[in-house]
Amino acid sequence: MNRLNETTLPQLASDVQLPGYDRSLISAGIVHFGAGNFHRAHQAVYCDTLLNQGENSWGIIGVSLRSPAVRDSLVPQDCLYTQATLGETTSYRVIAAIKGLLVAPENPQAVIDAVAGDRTQLVTTTITEKGYCLANGAIDRNHPDLSRDLHSLSAPQTTYGYLAAALIKRCAAQGKPLTVLCCDNMHGGGEHLAAGVRLLLEVHSPDTWAWVSRNCVFSSSMVDRVTPATDTALKEKVAERLGVYDAAPVAAEPFSQWVIEDRFAGERSPFDRAGALFVESIGPYEQVKLRFLNAGHSMLAALGYLAGDRFIHEALQREPLARFTEQALKQCVLPVTAVPADVDGVDYINQVLGRFRNANLPYAVLQVGSDSSQKIQQRWLPSIDDALSRERDAAYLAFALAAWASFIRKALANDDLNDPLRNDFARCESAAPRSPVRDYLALAGAAKFAFVNNETFMESVDGFYHTIAEQGVEQALVNFLTSVN
Ligand code: CS2
């Protein structure tokens, strides 16, 4: 079978949406760090829409910080790939917004030059929570990658390092202003990017930091589209439909949302013309997404894994799991969360749970469960403090923490745990035969939250942990739900 590329594009089935622009006229105004599936199903689609509208300067240079896999799959197909939308109906679209892909460790200078070049107006990131090198919510200067960048920027290890090295070059050339926009599931991601770059520049080039503070803006955004990892079944489905082979298609749900903080240096990228929303204050949108959608996802991932499910939609087919998640979000999280005026909290939660039920887009519990030590810091822990400080009942979140600790323990035992702190979790495992909840939570950055010192709350977490171990998760949930209702 022929490979998808510019030559085979005209052969594709007529119901596949094709790029309607001449790629030779496109320039890459964006450098994106973290060219994985989420980026390719989200931001790159918005860019492709703009390019289809004749906005020629919003092509993308993608950067992979570690693995060459995306570049190796996409370059032989001229960086074209299929985005399959899987819902009640299925549709296929070929995305052509990526102009080139760089693998940072192979050629660090090429990445630095790309960010420093004047054509680049916007740098975006989907480097996942762990890419921000945080400890207890702040930049961790002892993180091994960051320590290396603090020592030398000749071959940076972190996104901060690449940005700092590129900004030194951009400043030396008195280049144009630059916007750096976080597109991760992070609260205040733009502020972390600014803090990381500042930390490095204060060591390597304080004059550049002075220039950056006048010429660059670090902004945040709320990104949303459920995008699973690509499996063989998707590749086969796409090949059958397109009539050519695509080594790196990406599937996503029909829903897509991008809310962007309206702060840009220089020209504002016109993503609103592709359906994004610009807002003055991004915090409440980030919070709603993290505390309802992502928090619900992480609950279902832990509970579903414990119940033996592979996918999120299967976990939701179990009544106690579905009821627990819905009630936790509506009764425990919603009352302590500020929701933007244009969002109805209950409708939002209902819509999210409806999206998670999409059986046409299986989403693995272990994908959501990956890096959970980083994710719960944003998704659950702030709501617990908010609930306790307002003297509200936080029992659902206590149960969720117990389920998370049980998930860590079981995933470790099954060798399923994909987490940057995997080895640290394994060490507590051998050190503490009693409930590991407190040790696990300390690793997951809970020390900066007040709830860890609330003995009544912590005892309830320990209690639920033991109940889950003794009764199994489903029975423990049934008993829990009976006790709270
Ligand atoms: C998920 C997210 O894997 C996870 O942790 O919660 O990737 C989620 O699917 C996206 O944020 C949806 O926009």
Portion in strands: 5-15%
* Rg for CA atoms: 23 Å
Overall helicity: 40-55%
Continuous helix count: 21
- Superfamily at the CATH H level of the largest domain? NAD(P)-binding Rossmann-like Domain
Give the CATH level 1 class of the largest domain. Alpha Beta
Mean pLDDT: 96
CATH topology of the largest domain: the name is Rossmann fold
Structure ligands: D-mannonic acid
Strand order of the largest sheet: 5-2-1-6-9-10-12-13
Total beta strands: 13
The appropriate CATH architecture of the largest domain is 3-Layer(aba) Sandwich
Which terms summarize this structure?
alpha/beta, N-(1-d-carboxylethyl)-l-norvaline Dehydrogenase, domain 2, 485 residues, globular, 12% strand, eight-stranded mixed beta sheet, 21 helices, Rossmann fold, binds D-mannonic acid, 2 domains
